[in-house]
Amino acid sequence: MSAHEEEIEITGALRRGLGLNRRQFLAATTGVTAVALAGAGPLASAAQAASGNHPRGTLVPPSKRGIILYTVRDAISRDPLSTDLPSGFQRVFEALSRIGYRQVEFAGYSQHANAEGGANLESVEGARLLRRWLDDNGLEAEGNHGFIPGSWPVTPADLDKFKLHLEIAHILGLGHVGTGNDPTSSAYKDDWDIAAEKWNHLGSIASRAGIKLYTHNHDAAYNFLLDSGPLDALGKPTRSSGIRKLEYFLKITDRRDVYLEMDIFWAHVAQFKFKTFTAPDGSTQTDLFDPLAVVRAQSRRFPLFHAKDGKSNPATGNGYDMVPFGTGDIDYTAFFKGAGPKGSFNPMYEQDNAPGGTANPGQSLQYADLSYDNMAALRG
Question: Which residues pair with 285 in a beta bridge?
C-alpha cells in the first residue's frame, strides 16, 4: 500500500468512526494538524473505534452493528415529496449513519419513484449510485436478500440474472449474497437433496466470484425431516429419523460454498414449536432444539445473523411477539458470547413489524435507534 493509499484508508476510518460523511469530515478537520490527529482528542478516539478497538466486554463491536433495510422498508418506499421524514435510500442511509449503524443488509434495490435515482436501482448504474451513498455515510453493505434462481437446472435467463446480482454485489462491496427464503418449503428428504444440489452449484459460482452465498431460515426449516417410516399413498415417508431439515442441509452442502444466516427469532420459534417427532418405529420422541448449538458446531458457516428479538407469549402459535432489539426475552448476551469470537460475525437488527403505518410513520427509524443502543450496550 502506498503512503497516499494508507492516508486515504486512515482518513476513511476516522470519518466512519465519527459518523460523518466526506463533506462533514473535511469541514470538521480543516486546519487540524497531524499532531492533533495523534493526540488524545475526539479524532484519536474515532481512530481507535475505526481500527476495531472497543470498550472491554462489548459483544458487538461498533463496526459490526448492522440493520437489514427490510426493517425500515416504509421509509425507503415513501414519497419524498409528501413528507419531511427520511425517504429513499440516500436519506435513510444518512439517518442510519447518524444513529450509529455501520453495516446494512439490502432487501432488494427498490425505492419510491420520486427518490433520487428512481424506483429501481437493480442495475450496474443503480449499484454505483448506492455505493456512493453508502461511502458518503460511512456504511458498509454486507448482504442482500435478492435473486436466487427458481429454476433447476438453472435456465440461461436465470443464470444471467444471478450473475448480474453478483456484479451488483461487487460494486456495492458485498461479502455475501442470499435470499430471505428457505432452500425449499418441503418436509421431504428427496426435496432437500435436490435443494442442496442446486445450492452447491450456485454457491460454487458465487465462490468463484469471491462472494459467499447464504440462505436465511424461518422456523419451518428447523422442523423435523420426513425421511423414514411407512410411505403414504403418494410414496412419501411419514416418519422421521430425528434430524432437522436445515441441519440435514448443512450436512450435505459444501461448507466452502454454502453459508447460512440464522434468524435468531425464528430459530427460537422453532424451539417453541417443534419439540417432538414420530420415530421410524412409530414412537413419539422429544428433542428440544438448541439454536446456539447448531451455530457452535460450525460457526464459520454462519457469517450473518438476523438479530430479531421476541417477547415470550406462549398463547400465540409462535411463542413470541416481535419487539425492538433488547426489549424481549431472547438471551442475546449468551447467544453472541457463544456464537464465535467477537467481530467474527455480522448481526443485522431486524423487526418485521417495525413500520408504524400512517399512525406513526417515524416508528421504524425510532425502533432502529432504540435497537442500536441496546445492541451497543451488550456486554459479556
Answer: 277
